[in-house]
Amino acid sequence: MSAAALTTRPPDPALLAWLGQAGEPPTSADEPAWLAELRHDAAARAPDQGMPTQKSEGWRYTGLSALIEQGFKPQQKPISALQSEDLDKALIDGLETYRLVMVNGQFEPRLSQLDGLPTGVHIGGLAELIAQDPDRLAGQLGQIAGAGQHLFTSLNTANFADGLVMLLDEQVQLDRPVELLHLSIGLDEPSVAQPRHLVVLAAGAQAELIERYLSFDQAPYCNNAVVEIRLAERAQLHHYRLQQESPSAYHLSGLYLEQAAASRYRGINIGLGATWSRTDLVTRFLAEQADCGLQGLYLAGDRQLIDYHMDVQHQVPHCSSRENFKGILHGKGRAVFDGRVYVARDAQHTDAAMSNRNLILSPNAEVDTKPQLEIYADDVKCSHGTTVGQLEPEMLFYLRSRGISAPLAQRMLCLGFAGEIIDALGPEPLREQVTEAVGQRLEQSPL
Amino acid sequence: MSAATEYDHLVRSEYEHGFVTEIESDTLPPGLDEQVVAAISKRKGEPDWMTDWRLSAYGKWLNMPTPEWAAVQHAPIDFQDISYYSAPKKKEGPKSLDEVDPVLLETYQKLGIPIEEQMALAGIAVDAVFDSVSVATTFRDKLAEAGVIFCSISEAIKDYPELVRKHLGTVVPPTDNFYAGLNSAVFTDGTFVYVPKHTRCPMELSTYFRINTAKTGQFERTLIIADEGSYVSYLEGCTAPQRDDNQLHAAVVELIALEGAEIKYSTVQNWYPGDANGKGGIYNFVTKRGDCRGARSKISWTQVETGSAITWKYPSCILRGDDSVGEFYSVAVTKGRQQADTGTKMIHLGRNTRSTIVSKGISAQHGQQSYRGLVRIAGKAEGARNHTQCDSLLIGDTCAAHTFPYIEVKNPSAKMEHEATTSKISEDQLFYCRSRGLSEEDAVSMIVNGFCKEVFNELPMEFAVEAQKLLSISLEGAVG
Amino acid sequence: MLSVKGLKAKVGDKDILKGLDLEVGPGEVHAIMGPNGSGKSTFAHVLSGREGYEVTAGSVDFNGQDLLGLEPEERAQLGLFLAFQYPVELPGVNNTYFLKSAVNAIRKARGDDELDAVSFLRLMKERLKVLHLNDSLLKRPVNFGFSGGEKKRNEIFQMAMLEPKLAILDETDSGLDIDALRIVAAGVNALRGPERSMLVVTHYQRLLDYIKPDYVHVLAQGRIIRSGGKELALELEEKGYSWITDGEAA
To answer: How many domains in chain A?
Structure first.
């Protein structure tokens, strides 16, 4: 069955431009051979992967034309107009972190705060490490994502310049969360930044990572980020991802996760911003007893498209996965949820559950959801559930009968609905910030 | 019990309905072109408009791609290697059972469908389709009294051309999909039902399809029209004799329910699934669709699918009328090398439309099964409701079960719930039953029947019994 | 304080209330009794402004205000409180947050300052004590996963917090065992006062053993067909509703 011909076409030249000078190291002439090869392969692969059309399953509900029309160009040189006063606006009160700041995809040591890291921890910029000690990246960088889910991962691999590297030695535990703060400033020429992040936790290491995407103005730009995460035996990562970019931003993000035995991953994805966003979460278990939890909350309002794709692959027995995504659609918002749980023949005793619940509050909003199970093993416990509905009139009436106005009652119920996900964000200041952001959005925009 | 021995023994249990009826056939040589299409039409003595309709469908079909997206795999089908017409050699249809070929009646008896007994006891009018042409139609008088038209579609084309012309292809147009296009060009026979306004059809209507002559594709065409305020229940049951060559079956069923009308369509499908290595067996590529055209109309599909090598069907409802209701209840069993890709589409267009989907899939041995369903709630479908439940039961570690739901909601007052589970029969359940004295096989059968109960409850009584029996037979040898 | 005159209401095409009259003075407790389907719950819902009921005639005056023209929250802000027969579960909505929002919405409407978190908590603790309730309910989502008894107690607790002028208890006894009933009734009694009227809607007399009414009314076929003191309830218990409804029909 080669239906591929129908579902992709050669990539638009506007996108191939994102490849940059693939094979030609963008930052340093000292890139090791393996990295040059990685880039070269990705550049060669990209045209073959082709550009998805709406006939390809993964892009059925997500058109690319708006993105292509913007004609984003790869960013040429680092900019650093930001001062530390500017940064304050982006920080969350009361949130104590080791902070790595990136501006338009480039690490900004000036704005970062990495003092006092315990031994056994390396946190720093990717470009820096490539230049100084690339061996530490060999066998890791690019190996977890591989060819990736689609063209956009290859574009990133061919042309990434910088990003976060976070490496934890065995048994290391961080006393504070690590915060990866992504700031974007509009440039004269609409640009695409393609940061690449690598997180590797050795056996028994534990950490919390906060990944935030924010805009400094309303100019259009695009982020095409790829995150690779590898958790060794018994490692644990709590990962909070907050996308709160401006209404003119385009956001692509691919997360590739690999888990060894008895490791534990908790990812909480909050999608509030950008006019068009697409997130792919791809997880793979390498050995038994690993446990992966993916949660998400998306709020799509005026003319926003928010798309979450998940590919959870159970190749080995005795692992468990949970996906729980909730969405609120208002205005002309549109959301896409496409989750796939794959259970291979050998993956007996898999325990997988996927849930996607949506509140649709406006006659112009739309949600397209596709929770899929693909199961080749018999001794498994797998389920999925999806709902789409509005706020229960019963509940609204109950609140109003207690004296609460209709708009406030709606907000309370929406926040109650969202609360399950928000509560999973570990640090309290983070929970408060998200609760406030969601509350504000609901207050500002007519339901 | 020694699972392996029992398994081997039971796996080899032969297809119960595998035998060939010897009866002379008038068969066109294999191949398909415009002449063949015209010849089919001519042999059936059709009017020109029908011939033109077929030829136009054929022209469009030539430019259509074969569907490749279903999660099933088969060798490419050579459409030139199929004979498109095969009719029992009889010039006139029988007026009564006495006139029916005794070999045919014997066939039904072997199948466990004693036709007279069924007619007498259950009051079912049986329109038996032997290969492609109706040869026996009963209870016509009683139906005629009520004004119900129940005949073969060939007769309907001759006797009720205005009804057929008005409705044929309006629910499933020839351009709908590859197999619907092919069917439109070459369909040989099928059933036509018209229930007049405010009439409750006085009995369950039933047709038993059989595929017989080797290398004969069967292209049934069914059209059921329930006029305003009427009700009809239609039963379709299928079994097929054993064959070595794959046989293509590409039926089209169109249902039209006008204002306040209700159509209940039940299917038990048990065609030859192929041998243990997947050799032979029917390719069942069916397009079934109902159009709830009028307000408060209702279309309900119930299916029990245990046969065929490959099943590819999605009985669907277009809920056009306000307050109309669509239902889909399905049990599908795949074992051996069977593959099934089945499900439904519920297209909500009218206000306060409601749909229910209950799908139960059972996969054993090397069986491959997918539920593929679409629930679309259009912007204007104010107050639409859908509830979907898809459950899969896996027996053995070489089978597979997949769920591919597509849910598209564009209306804020809509309410849509979808639940799916995949599980196996638990050791606890089995042990509990066995500790009460049941054999493992009986226990499995009982648990599986319980798993499917929701769907069996939707079948007419006599059909439900047959379906349960079929399910038990299908699962024999599947437990290991 | 509450004056209902000739109230008629229907659900869909069905007439449920067919000319109901009722006067409730300050501090009075009125019991409305009646067989199933007599319109008791409809009456409670119409008073609280629930959707799905169409008032076709009559008036409801509440302390000089025409109640029927108001939104549910406006009625609550005026001091009307409905204790639901089936309290609604609000997953994810924290009980304390919910109560604070409600209390402050009502205070604001009355022209009082909103309570800050500290004073609100103090008030909450104080009311819990009055009702002999523990605070385990406060941390959970509103009614979510509550037992039947917990839900009813939560309703009474809300009543204590919102300090209504008129509380309508809709079949508060339904689904409660005798111990739970006693606790709930004790709560209600603790909240009785000269400025607080109550309408106790019930099918059975047993609730009235614990909440003693000043007046008892019998509602049948959408109208009040008999009114009396608490002895009427006892008489009903003994003789059944047919004793009155048959007489009415004859």
So the answer is: 2
